[in-house]
Structures are given as C-alpha cells and as structure tokens.
User: What shape does this take?
Amino acid sequence: MSRQLKTVGAGAALLTLTLSAWVTLDTERAPMSTGNESTGEEIAEAASRFLETLESDQRDRATYDLSTDERFNWNFVPTARNGLPLKDMTLGQRTAAHRLLQATLSSQGYHKANAIIELERILGILEGRPERRDPEQYFVTIFGTPSA
Assistant: This one.
C-alpha cells in the first residue's frame, strides 16, 4: 500500500471518528425527540417554500402524484434515484431543502442526516471508488401537494 494511500486512509478514519464523536456528543446534549417538534402546517409550509424556489423543469423532477408507485421506490443503498438532486440546486434552493429537512426531523435527526451525507466522501475513499459516493447525489422528492 502506498504511503499516500495510507495517509488518506488514516485521515479518513480520523475524520470518521471525529464526526462520530461530534454526532455522539450532540446526541448527549440534545433532548430526546418527542416526535412533534414541527407541526404538519410547518412541514407543509417548508415544502411549499422549497417548491416555490424551483424552476418549472426542476419542479417537474421534484414532484410526483401521491398515488404513484414511485412513492414505494426507496432504499438505503446506492441505486438510481428520482427527484431533484442537491447538485442540481442553487444555494437558495439547497437552503430551502435543508429547511424542509429541519422541519421534518428532530434537531438530533437533522444533524445525523447531515453527518451521513458528509460521510459519503470518506466512504468513497475507503471503498476505492469515490465516483460512486457523492454527497450532492441526495434527492428531494415531494409526493402530492403539500398541505396540513
């Protein structure tokens, strides 16, 4: 194994441990979620605001009818996705997407989701296939019309 690869591997491991410790420490400080930090109205408003930031072609990619089978097409492993990826969003659109995520998750859940997204880079290095792991390849998909 080359010295450079060992250094990258050690750096990736250190960053992983650092992020894990940060998430763990944040978990210890954060109160347990009651499951109702946001109301349905707040979530619907955040979803509507996100959709308002999109161009029509982006909105077409990000929205599906509630009755579509696409609603059941989900998995936690890397696979083809539908929806609007973060990499196709402007900074303002990403901000609105993160506000939607914040409205739907507890503070602890939001921090964990962000840590998982950021760990994509490290997983790519550790797997030796960074092209398969892209933190901007997370998608936002909204089914139906946001309402409470």
